[in-house]
Every structure is written in structure tokens, then in C-alpha cells.
Amino acid sequence: MTSLPLTPVNLDAPARRAAMPPRHLADLDLAGRQALVAELGEPRFRARQVSTHYFGRLVRDSGQMTDLPAAAREKLTDRLLPTLLTPVRELTCDGGATHKALWRLHDGSLVESVLMGYPDRVTACLSSQAGCGMACPFCATGQAGLTRNLSTAEIVDQAVYLAGVAASGAVAGSPPRLSRVVFMGMGEPLANYNRVVAAIRRLVAPAPEGLGLSQRHVTVSTVGLVPAIRRLASEDLSVTLALSLHAPDDGLRDELVPVNQRWKVSEVLEAAWEYAARTGRRVSIEYAMIKDVNDQPWRADLLGRLLAGKLAHVNLIPLNPTPGSRWDASPKPVEREFVRRLRDAGVSTTVRDTRGREIDGACGQLAAAEGDEIVGPGAP
């Protein structure tokens, strides 16, 4: 097994305090938008009209909002729809079924999000932070460190933009509608708790309040921030919890997921089972398969014992390559044996499709590295 030094992580240290972006309608509920419109001297119903364009029609261009008076159009859109994400680069792979977008934020920070199309669904993978402070050594985002938390609207705007890409028919072989969102992009979602929960509420509220997604089609990933998991269980939301476990034993997980130095495997799993009991939702256990590190048969057996009889599903992730990494994905025979042992223990197990690997858009690869080439949306 490759051994790493333990990495101390100060979870109480706040993200770098940066000037937050201008207030956007996605930061506000409908009543808040109406109050803002009234401050501008416009009828309150204009908030619903602008919200319908943004969430219902996926339109940002004020020129297309012809139901707004020309004299008020620019004033309303400037205050309600300020630019939050400036496209830097968009790449596609998998025959046009996977799109990765790189954005520059108002303060120059870079974030990425990914759109993945399947025959029956389209999924957006959203970032919740610029960078990540969890320091997992096999993850490109974690190695970059944390820049800052994203605002609610910066999170939501990724989804609305990607929903527009899907609606345009640009996602090959897939329905023209965004149907699922996973918080598995850059950042630890539960370390930006308030804004992520507010973003979820916008995403699942029906238009014009929000994007109208099903709560059951939203997944929130975490490395295991125990107090935040328990808090999420009390939010009256039916979203799926995805726990990035990656090792069933504390000795190895201390290295692979440094937050384990604070909350051990038993504590993290206990919080996950509490979440499942409270919500009735099956917990997804994420497990990156790393050659000769966490893929031994005895670890599969231990994981099976920990999960047997629980409302859980294991999602094995072949390790995706990242620059400078000395680790590799487990060989397929090793992966198959791991799956067999888990299933023999009665644990539902699948292997994740490695979508987006060619464009560094797969799990653990998002690093928001800005290259020289700048291309427009939908470019090959």
C-alpha cells in the first residue's frame, strides 16, 4: 500500500473572504425578487416575468424579454440578472454526450461544471466552491486548495446554463431537458452549507420560483462532515446523500480523506444511516478504486460487513488520472473481485461510467486549469 503522511485539515478556518458577486434573482425567493423590483419603482409582477424567462425559458438576453416594457427592460435585467459566470472554454467528448464548461467568476476565480447525457436523462454536475479545502490527495480539485465559497446564484446559474445547453439539443442522444443535478463538482458542498441548501431549494422549486427539478433527482456529495449531514437530514428535503468513503478502515481513510482525522468511519456511517432513516433515501457510498491502495479483498469484505443490511448502494469509481499522480486505477480483474465480494455480502454495487475522462471532466479531475485556447459553447 502506498503510504502518505497524515494531512492536518483545519475545518474551522473559513474560506478566503472575497467580495461576493452582485445579487442575482437566484439568490432570492420570489418574494425577495418582488421586493427588489418594487425598490426599482416597477410593479411587483415584473419579478415573476423576469423569473419566468430565466427559470422557465432559460433566457438571459433582455432583448428576448419582449413582454417587459423597453424602458424598464435593461434596468430590471441589470439588477436581477447580472453576469455571474463568464465562459472561458467549453469542451465536449463521448460523441457530444459530455460537455465541460470552464467559468471565470467576477473576482477572477475559475470553476468548472459538467453536463452528461444518457438515453433517458441529462445530468449536470455542479461546483459549490472555487477549489476545495478537503485535501484528498487523489483528487485534482482537493490538491488545488480552497479559494472561496460560491454564492447561491453562482451555483444555480451553472444549472440554468447547462439546462439551456440540453434544451438546445446539443447533448447527443439525450432528451432535451435537464433532469438531474449532482453536487459532485469542485468543492465540498456541505462546507458551503447555507448556500448549497438555498441552491437546492431554487433548483427544485417550480418555475418561476425555480428550475422545477425533482428533489429525488438531486444528489449531494460529501467527504463526511458529520454535523452537516445531520443538519441536512432535518431540512425536509428528499435529496440523495452520496458519501465519499474510499476506505472502510480508519488507518487508510485518514490518509485518503483527511477529514477522517476528525470524524472516523464509524461516526460518518452512523450519520449516514441517520440520514437514511430520517429521509427514507438510500445512501450512495462512493469508493474510488486505487491500485494496491484500497482495493484489497479484505477491504471489500470489511466494507461489505459495514454496509450489510443498510439502506445503501456502493458506487465504485475507477480512479481517473490527474496530472502528477503516481496512482493508477485498479485492474479490471481486481475491480470485478471487489464487486463480487460486496454483492456476496448482500450489498448493491455498481461501477461508475468514466464519462468525461478525455477532457478532465470525470470524478476527481476538475481543476479549473485555464489553457490558451478559448472557444465558444458547444465547440468540439
Overall pLDDT score:
89
Number of strands: 12
Helix segment count? 11
Unreliable stretches, pLDDT < 50, 5 or more residues?
1-11, 359-366, 372-380
Distance between the termini: 40 Å
Spatial extent as radius of gyration: 21 Å
Strand/helix succession: HHHEEEEEHEHEHEHEHHEHEHE
Task: State the secondary-structure class.
Answer: alpha/beta
Shape: elongated
The portion of residues assigned to helices is 25-40%
Side-by-side strand order of the widest sheet: 1-2-3-4-7-8-9-10-11-12
The largest sheet is:
10 strands, mixed
Which band does the percent of strand residues land in? 15-25%
Can you tell me about this structure?
It is a single chain. Helix 10 links the parallel strand 10 and strand 11. The chain contains eleven helices and twelve strands. The two termini are 40 Å apart. Helix 5 runs parallel beside helix 6 (193-204) and helix 7 packs parallel to helix 9. 32% of the residues lie in helices and 18% in strands. The longest helix is centred in the middle third of the chain and has 16 residues, at 152-167. Strands 1-2-3-4-7-8-9-10-11-12 form a ten-stranded mixed sheet. Strands 5-6 form a two-stranded antiparallel sheet. The protein has helices spanning 30-39, 45-56, 70-80, 140-144, 152-167, 193-204, 226-233, 250-256, 265-279, 297-307, 332-344; strands at 86-93, 98-104, 110-118, 121-125, 129-131, 146-149, 180-183, 218-222, 240-244, 283-289, 312-318, 348-351.
